Structures are given as C-alpha cells and as structure tokens.
Automatic annotation (TrEMBL):
Family: Belongs to the GMC oxidoreductase family.
Cofactors, names only: FAD
Domain Glucose-methanol-choline oxidoreductase N-terminal: 16-331
Chain ranges of the Glucose-methanol-choline oxidoreductase C-terminal domain: 467-572
Keyword Electron transport: no
Protein name: GMC oxidoreductase
InterPro entries: FAD/NAD-bd_sf, Glucose_Oxidase_domain_2, GMC_OxRdtase, GMC_OxRdtase_N, GMC_OxRtase_C
GO MF terms, alphabetically ordered: flavin adenine dinucleotide binding; oxidoreductase activity, acting on CH-OH group of donors
Domain of life assignment: Eukaryota
List of residues binding FAD: N99, G100, M101, V102, V248
Pfam families, sorted: GMC_oxred_C, GMC_oxred_N
Keyword check for Oxidoreductase: yes
UniProt KW keywords: FAD, Flavoprotein, Oxidoreductase, Signal
Length: 572
C-alpha cells in the first residue's frame, strides 16, 4: 500500500474508485475494493499520524486534545458561536484515531428499523455477518472476569481485523462493583451483565474497547480502522494508494450526472483556485469524509438545497434539500459526586486513566420512567381518544406500539420514524407534554449512561440516545478550506429535554443510593442542585454544560428522497 503526501501520485491519473476521506468508512471500503483487485485512491485531508502516541496508545490521549481533530466550530440559531467545539478525526484513521473506542453491538430492533425506513436489505440478519467479520475479540482473563467483565463468545467475531477487549488492568473495579449494584436501584429492570454486546439480555456492563494489550510495552493499544485495514502487514495492497494532507473539493460530474472523478488540493493552502488538481474514477466516487464533511463536498459539487448553493455562488446540478439537513448528535453532560477523604487515594475507586467509561448502561424508557400501575402509559392506553388517533396513524402506515387493555398493536413503522417529529408533535397536541412520545420509542434504549471516576470525584456522563432535535450543516462559501457552518440545535425538542432532565436526576440518585453511602461525601457536588431541585433548574444547568457526544449522523441520510433522504439504499 502506498501512503504519501505527494500530489503527483494522483493528479491527472485514473483509478477504478476514488474515495474521499480515510476514516472508518473510507479505509474499510478501500481495503475491500483493493482486495478484490480494483485500483483505489483514497484522498485524506489530514496527515498520517501513525507515529503519534496520542493516536496509537489507547490511554495516550487527553480529553479535548487538538491532535488529529478538526474541532469544528458550532453555532446557535442566532449565528453566535457556541462555547464548545465539535471533535472529529482529522488524520488517517479519521475519528477512529481519536474516538472513545467503546465497542458494543446494537440491538436487532434498532438495525431492523433502518430497513423499514425504506432501505431494503439493511437489517440485522444481513448485517450481522459483517459485524462478525470485522472483529477479533480477545476474551477477558480470569482476573478480569472476577472483577465483573464477562464474555458471550457467540456475540463476537474472533477472526477479524479490529481487536476488541477489556483493558488490562480493568479500571476502578471497586467503584464498578458499586455501580453495578446501584444502577438497577435507580433504573428498575436494568439488566446488569458482563458483556454489553449481548444485547438480548444485558443492558449494563463493564466496557469493551477497540484495543489490544501489548505485553512488550505493557500498554493498551488503539485498534483503529487504520490499524486494522491499512497498516496491518497482512493487509497490504498493490492497488491501494492513500494521498494524505489533501482535501477533496468537488465531485466531477459527466453526462447524466455520473461521477467521473474529483478535484482536490493540498490541505495547507489558503487560496484554492491556483492549486486545484483532478483525478478520475472509472467505476465510482465514494464520499466518506464523515457525517459533517461529506455534505459540504456534495454542496460544493452542486448537489443540495438551492438556497444554500445560491448563497455560496455554486451552480446547481441537483435539487436535493436533504443534504446537510437532519443533523443530530446526542446532547451530553456529566454530574459529579465528591468522594470522601478515606477513599481519595484508593485506585480501585478513583484512577487517573484516560480510558472512558468503565461501565456503560443503555436505559429503556420504562426504566427511566418506570411502568407502574397508574403510570402514564396505562393512562394513555385507557384513553379512547388516543387509541382512535393512534389507529388512524396505523391505518396511514405508521408504526405505533400501543399497549392497552392487554392489546399490542404493531404496524409498519415507516411513517412514524421518517416523520416522527411531526407525528410526535401531533400526539403532543392530543395529550400535552412529552409522555405520549413513549408510544413510539418503546423498542430502543433512550439514554446512554456512563459510570466514571474523576480526580477526586465519581461521576456519571449521560445523554438522550435517540434525540428528536434536528440541526444542520452547510457550506458558507465555495472555498473547500473553510469550515462548514454547523448548527447542532441540541435539546430543542421537548422530548429530548424531558429525557435529559430525567437522566440528570437519576445520576444524582445513583450517588445518593445505599451502595455509595460509605464512599460518597456529597452526592450533589457538581452541579450543586439538591434533591429538591426543579426541572427548570436541571434543564438550565444541562443547557449550559452540554456538548455533542460525538456521534453525529444524519447530514446525508439513507432513505427515500421524498422523505428527505439524500442517498438510496445502495448509497447512491
Ligand atoms: C471524540 C469521538 C469519540 C467517539 N467515541 C466513539 C466510541 O467510543 N465508540 C464508537 O463506536 N464510536 C465513537 N465515535 C464515533 C466514530 O468514531 C465515528 O462514527 C466513525 O469514525 C465515523 O466514520 P466515518 O468514516 O463516517 O468518518 P471519520 O472516521 O470521521 O472519517 C472521515 C475522514 O474524512 C476526512 N475528511 C474530511 N473532509 C475531507 C475532505 N474534504 N477531503 C478529504 N478528506 C476529508 C477526515 O479528516 C477523516 O479522516 C466517536 C467519535 C469521536 C469524534
């Protein structure tokens, strides 16, 4: 495999495929296509940082580091800069060179919904073999198992390219024990286990990461997409070229809007016009510049929302308003409890390691708002008005699970998912408040809850997992070296706000629970909002302290065009 910064390797040349972005998607697809004998050029804006311990040492990275990080600015609706920046990988390996490395599988219900959204074939049964093929799972050893790690071998691959394992040694086993005890008290019904990839029976477990333990150096090492698919000695390819430190400007189009190649330029220039080069693709161009950069490439190429293209002075080729719309990330924050003096130096409770989130929980809606007699879900079920309204939605092709009088109505979920914001709002109007949204979110976890330790604290980081709020990313000019304008609009939707407040309250309850009695000196340390704090107080704090959880999706959505989609089920 050729990895180079030399423009001449690509300028004016023709390849079977050209790929924009050497991150998770670009490297994986580039590896597979070149492995089948196609000539492939991957153009990556960032450098090769394989030498950098911040990238290869799994614990070498500090939170907020600028190495290999775009740190995109984020804006409010009012055009003002937000106080936090957006982390996104900016070197070979993309975000897998800087991410939290947390590894677990989605549920079948979640994956199957991608298909019902209008994407034939995108379901659990078809995707599961690829999950198996990607992974080389290293089971926990006896010490790790004794400390709460577990492994269900049949929910892992064992011969793939990405190493996954528990860290050596496991982090804060004493505190994790307490978390495992306390979490089900606060989230009744939460199933604690050892392996979070076993999603049929486990929703809280010690964390596995995309890492492997190097016995020579005694360090945990990051297993990035580059590690698995580019640098690995047994993955070298005669026909794969990676051009680093070059930015893809546009896709070149021929007749019938067929992609014929790309224009690109060195990443360190400031005026693009004089330094733009072209490379040609005989079979296809693949955009994999990440969820916040692929949409801008499309817009610069003349594909997007007409008003955006017009104000950037770009000639329109395709009117596709979904480009850059529908952006969403999970709004995260963290709440801290002060650890009592006696435990301040106990490394089984508090440590200084930078592997994120030793225990992770995925909270279902009925664990956040328990389903008890008299709770709103039973109220809703007994309300005739909602039943008939919901029936109307079902008749219109919506997917609604209505639990009432022992009956469960299930239907296609097309409409409710694709228009879920609209339908959620119409249900709101019927019943007021967010509670009715319960109807459409029963099947998937709605909060991710990470149990952690700080320097003198224990803390929980958390976020609504399926936010209904939507933001956008668009170009501001035709200059490919300018950052796009990203407007996240986190926590705009009332349902997201309700989930956020409930998660924040629950985090305090965890540290105020009996298992933490001896360990915690102040469960309400930061924020200093006590047990009687109002929802408004919690929400105000949440909005002030929140950041994007770095799981951005949506700007080039795969779904039918009439629903706002950008690519079809074959990613075209
Ligand atoms: C801080 C952080 C923590 C995360 N934690 C986790 C985690 O713990 N577990 C998990 O599963 N996921 C995590 N993720 C998410 C995961 O890493 C991403 O979902 C995944 O890497 C996305 O893959 P991608 O190929 O779409 O984009 P990326 O991997 O980001 O790759 C995109 C590449 O395109 C390049 N590029 C951008 N613009 C251009 C251009 N114009 N021309 C050429 N190249 C360009 C970028 O430099 C980058 O290398 C995290 C992400 C971040 C940022």
């Amino acid at each position: 495999t050729m990895v180079t910064n030399d423009t001449g390797i690509a300028a004016g040349k023709t390849f079977d495929y050209i790929i924009a972005g050497a991150g998770l998607s670009g490297l994986t697809v580039g590896n597979k296509l070149s492995g089948k004998g196609y000539s492939v050029l991957i153009i990556e804006a960032g450098p090769d940082a394989s030498w950098n311990p911040e990238v290869f040492d799994a614990e070498g990275r500090m939170f907020g580091s600028k190495t290999c990080n775009w740190q995109y600015p984020a804006y409010g609706d009012d055009g003002k800069l937000l106080p936090w920046k957006i982390d996104s990988g900016a070197c070979i390996g993309g975000s897998t060179s800087i991410n939290g490395m947390v590894w677990y599988r989605p549920t079948k219900a979640e994956l199957d919904k991608i298909e019902t959204l209008g994407n034939p074939g995108w379901n659990w049964d078809n995707l599961e073999p690829y999950m198996v093929a990607a992974e080389r799972n290293i089971p926990p050893d006896a010490t790790q198992i004794a400390q709460g790690a577990g492994s269900s071998p049949d929910v892992h691959g064992h011969n793939g390219f990405i190493n996954t394992s528990f860290p050596t040694p496991l982090r804060i086993p004493g505190a994790v024990d307490l978390y495992k005890e306390a979490l089900p008290l606060v989230f009744p019904g939460l199933a604690v286990g050892g392996d979070l990839s076993n999603r049929t029976s486990v929703s809280s477990a010690s964390t596995m990461y995309t890492i492997w333990y190097d016995t020579v150096t005694g360090k945990n090492r990051r297993s990035s997409a580059a590690d698995g698919y580019l640098w690995a000695p047994n993955q070298q390819r005669a026909k794969l070229t990676v051009l680093a430190t070059h930015v893809v400007d546009k896709v070149l189009f021929g007749q019938g809007i067929t992609a014929t190649g790309v224009s690109f330029l060195p990443a360190n220039g400031s005026t693009p016009s004089s330094k733009t080069f072209k490379a040609y693709a005989a079979k296809g161009v693949i955009l994999s510049a990440g969820s916040l950069a692929s949409a801008p490439v499309l817009e610069r190429s003349g594909v997007g929302k007409p008003s955006v293209l017009k104000s950037a002075g770009i000639t329109r080729l395709v009117d596709l308003p979904g480009v850059g719309a529908n952006v969403n990330d999970q709004p995260g924050t963290a709440a801290y409890a002060l650890v009592s003096a006696a435990y301040q130096n106990d490394t089984s409770i508090i440590d200084n390691r930078s592997l994120f989130a030793p225990e992770i929980s995925l909270i279902n809606i009925d664990e956040l708002w328990p389903l008890t007699a008299g709770s709103f879900i039973l109220d809703i079920a007994s309300q005739k008005g909602l039943r008939s309204r919901a029936q109307a939605l079902v008749d219109a092709g919506a997917a609604v699970n209505i639990f009432g009088a022992g009956a469960v109505l299930n239907a296609s979920i097309d409409l409710i998912t694709t228009h879920r914001r609209k339908l959620a709002l119409s249900i709101f109007h019927l019943h007021g408040g967010y509670k009715a949204t319960y109807l459409i979110l029963l099947a998937v976890p709605i909060v991710e809850f990470l149990a952690e330790s700080g320097s003198s604290t224990l803390y929980a980081a958390f976020w609504p997992l399926v936010p209904l709020s939507r933001g956008h990313v668009h170009i501001n000019s035709s200059n490919p070296l300018d950052h796009p304008i990203i407007v996240p609009r986190l926590l705009e939707d009332p349902f997201d706000a309700a989930v956020a407040v409930a998660a924040a309250r629950a985090s305090r309850a965890v540290f105020a629970s009996a298992p933490f009695e001896d360990i915690v000196a102040n469960a309400y340390y930061d924020p200093p909002i006590g047990p009687n704090g109002t929802d408004a107080e919690y929400l105000a704090w949440y909005r002030k302290s929140m950041f994007g959880a770095s799981h951005w999706v949506g700007a080039t959505t795969m779904m039918p065009r009439h629903l706002g989609g950008v690519v079809d089920h074959q990613l075209r």
